[in-house]
Write a sequence for this structure.
């Protein structure tokens, strides 16, 4: 299983606060100032009330596994050397569901409802099969999730 290899991700104005938080080891999402709903980091409006009044909100990084899949085939050439890897949907303790990369498992030992927690990693160059070391890649620190036996089923 390829835990570290993943191509770099570049920031833009909309994602700068998210990546700044990740570099500090914090998982940043959004919270609606009108309803109080906690939303994913990509939200531009509240799914509960429609308000565009959202603020950055740091969450615990704890959650439970909803579902997952093991990716065996390279979906894009930039991921050559990164497969197989596990992609998952995690329900954060604060409510929102996130599509994430799951590390520290090959997926066979996972179960729905299993506790997971965020980790923060710098992208690594995938092994391109040339025999050269992958090494650290340029790009942003990324949140990933890993199984966490220390947590109870609901954080």
């Amino acid at each position: 299983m390829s835990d570290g290899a993943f191509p770099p991700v570049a920031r833009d104005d909309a994602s700068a606060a998210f990546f700044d938080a990740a570099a500090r080891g914090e998982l940043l999402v959004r919270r609606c100032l009108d309803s109080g709903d906690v939303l994913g980091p990509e939200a531009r409006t509240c799914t509960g009330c429609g308000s565009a009044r959202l603020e950055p909100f740091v969450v615990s990084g704890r959650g439970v596994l909803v579902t997952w899949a093991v990716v065996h085939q390279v979906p894009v050439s930039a991921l050559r050397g990164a497969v197989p890897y596990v992609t998952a949907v995690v329900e954060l303790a604060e409510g929102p569901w996130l599509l994430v990369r799951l590390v520290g498992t090959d997926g066979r030992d996972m179960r729905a409802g299993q506790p997971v927690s965020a980790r923060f990693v710098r992208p690594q160059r995938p092994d391109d099969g040339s025999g050269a070391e992958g090494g650290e890649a340029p790009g942003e620190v990324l949140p990933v999730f890993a199984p966490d036996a220390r947590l109870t089923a609901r954080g």
